Model the fold of this input.
Amino acid sequence: MELIDLAMIWALIIGFGIVMYVLMDGFDLGQGILFPFAPDEDARDVMMNSVAPVWDGNETWLILGGAGLLAAFPLVYSVFLPALYIGVFLMLTGLIFRGIAFEFRFKARTSKYLWNWAFAGGSIVASFAQGVVVGNYIQGFNVENGVFVGGAFDWLTPFTVFTGIGLLAGYALLGSTWLIMKSEGYIQDWAYKITLPLLAAVLAVFGIISIWTPFVNPDVWDRWFSNIQIIWVLPAMTAFFAWVLFRSVQKRQDGMPFVATMGIFVFTFLGLVASKWPYVVPPDYTIYDASSAWESQLFLLLGLLFVIPVVLGYTAWTYWVFRGKVKAGVGYH
Amino acid sequence: MELDPLLLSRIQFGFVVSFHAIFPVFTIGLASYIAVLEGLFFKTGNPIWSKLSRFWTQVFAVVFGMGVVTGIVMAFQFGTNWSNFAQSSANFLGPVLSYEVVTAFFLEATFLGVLLFGRDKVPKGVHLFAAIMVAVGTFISSFWILSANSWMQTPAGVEFRDGAVFVTSWMEALFNPSFPYRFAHTVMASFLTGGFVVAGVSAWYLLRKREVEANKKALSMCLWMLLFLAPAQVWVGDLHGLNTLEHQPVKVSAMEGLWETDTNVPLLLFAIPDQANQTNHLEIGIPNLASFILTHDWAGEVPGMNEVAVEEQPPVGIVFWAFRIMVSIGLLMVAFAIAGLFLRRGGRFAEAPWFLKGLTYMSITPFIAVVAGWFVTEVGRYPWLVWGQMTLAEGLTPSLTGGMALFTLIGYVLVYALVFAAGVYYLMRLFQVGMEDSHTSDHIDEPQSAKRPWSGADVTLEAGGR
Done:
């Protein structure tokens, strides 16, 4: 180990990137998940318009996740992707269909309903597949000498299917609270109406996953019931934000539901990390085992220190440019 | 028959990367064109520039969208099908690809949102700035990805220890021997692609007497650019070839269809390479010309395929013919560019039907040339993944079975066929609708802000820009 613990810094950066991705693409994938249930076509227009200027930037965080893992923790990249081969394929095709739906739906007339399905179907498949990845991370991988040696369908187990559904519900909640913030009138009413049932579903699913996890992976049980009691702060914070969300929906606040949902996600993520730390390719490999060469981690880090703040700056700026409510019947035609 | 995951993965990568490549190669050129149009509009206030810019921005949005979704696939192919390669080259490729994401992809994606949807939400100067940032992003992206690709062709600045790459000099690795040539050749190809597409579409409109003033301006701009760029590309391509001769001589042997090292080598115009018998059939060539082009000496010695073992030879037929397709199209482009100059007098370039028709057909040729060019350089790298260091077989994902690779290959072919068909359909419709009535299928001039009511004509929108 060299002077600075670069692996630790990189774990923080990648973790930050994942959180950014999940929050940002989460709310726009959420629009797709909720799409089939929207009250009418005007509402679908508003839902899509509310994310159209930013979805591309949001999805770029996923590419950064892929490239960043290759750069900093190549073992993660070269184990996860072969292990999740079919799942990754499904996620990518889902993202393809929903991505092109943005451009084509607004140019279509008679075939518009097809692009509604492409947007909804693509978003649902991609979200589910991402949830499956989380499940696989909890479950661990069949790795020998740094190479995945399992089968083509190891990734698909009852547990991972359940985490897939969990993330679907989570993204739908991000989507509905985003919509509360960006819409008005009957569309906002609808978003308020579905938010609390979605919250209940998310809490139920997260609860079941928490109980199920120790059976899938006993080490997680030890982690939570050994002497590091400070980590119980994390689920407590999740519960707190769930309560904030509940109250803010009851009071029909505009922005707070989305903020609270982000809080739920952040602390659930931290709870997940706390369960597995410092393992990145469970059950055997830590962040240190998975690291690339020290000088490679350093080379990229030096650049990122300058570039990431700039990226965050102009990203924030575009959100500011496109702030405010999206009007029904205006926008794309 | 046993399904070979190696062959299937090669076909899959070849397919997804070729399919992806046709989008950025167009958007790189087009992004700069849009930035220029926005700049001209900003400076002169002439609504023609704004009209052209709006129209081409819509086209850009469709093509860029397809480039993005097919590009996401590329970011994961290294891991899914080539995980051993990913693992062993990560110390170099990881940072390079990450730099591409943070310095280029974010820039393009974020400012594209402003370019497409922000016309009424930001001041005119900021909108121009967004257009420039999108264009700059496309260049930065080409820089990193071509550096990565060139490094696989001509690795430098690294040492190989225990099956992994360790960088000894970032400068040498990034600016490896083939990079400057490949970068210049590819960026110029992008401009040629953008130029010929804009020229072709403008010509199509001129044939139909639609928006004559704007399209004549656009065509004139394109022809000036092509006049310098098309011949320059031939020159840069030649330099690139000489660089390949120095570092990857066997690739040049395949391009020339030369089996035995020889002097006084003819330039073959036609041949049917026969890899099994290590010979050509039905050769037609110009005596001594290949020697002259490659060594600048009519009698010069050119290395042949016999310099390497048979199993280290690339598939000659593909490289040989892809090269000829690329060069023929390049020469055709030069011919059209020069014809455009002669038709300047009396403005006939915007009227002569044969020329306009020809340009319309020319608009698809750059895509063919670009894909053919990539086939030359990529297939010509066989059997190496990293030239001289790692073979394709060594880079393959160990757990990958033939069935899995076949499943995803078929999947990508089906999905991309659908994406492509839809994309072409909507592009054709955009072209048919044209720029006359720019708010029938347009999103860029619809005000999303409630502050100013929709005023009907786009001219007023521009005049009232905040």
Observations:
- Chain A touches chain B through 73 residues (CB under 8 Å).
- Chain A has 13 helices and four strands.
- The CA atoms of residues 219 and 255 of chain A lie 39 Å apart.
- Chain A has one domain: 8-321.
